[in-house]
Amino acid sequence: MSTGPIDSEYFNWLCAKVMRVEVPTPGNTWWNLLRELYNTEFVWVEAMDENRADDGRELRTEFIHQVGWDADPVWLRLGCSVLEMLIAFSKRAWFQTGRSAEDWFWEFIDNLGLKKFTDSVPDRFSEIPITLERLLWRTYEPDGTGGLFPLKNVFTVNDQRKVEIWHQFCDYLIAQGY
Fold this sequence. Notes:
The chain is mainly alpha-helical.
């Protein structure tokens, strides 16, 4: 998604929304993971998930207004990254539950099995694209295991692979007792 200096500033701005570390060391930072999420375009197979992409792209407008820059309209319309979608969805989750967006973001990352990819384990980063492919193409389990919202040991009539992300989240909230 690189488009020069604005891209670097924007990536750092996104990362600041989810990664707060007092003393950064490779064991407690996820720069490489976040970069991979940023470099992977969010694609959707359920029609309503286009809304998740729109939410992610809306972060660019928020960024532009916050830093006071003019943005190339083409940059504003580029495809949404997985990182943008997850951050934007975390904000929606916060609005719905009152739990911080940062906490939701890291729960999503953990549910995907990606939290283990700190900067101290660079030799395993080749596993990240496989996980993202499973998320994007919905090859996770019908109960959501392997996706954003696993519903292990919970009865659901919905095959989570065939339900838009928002409804998966709603099922997850119910299963979690929200």
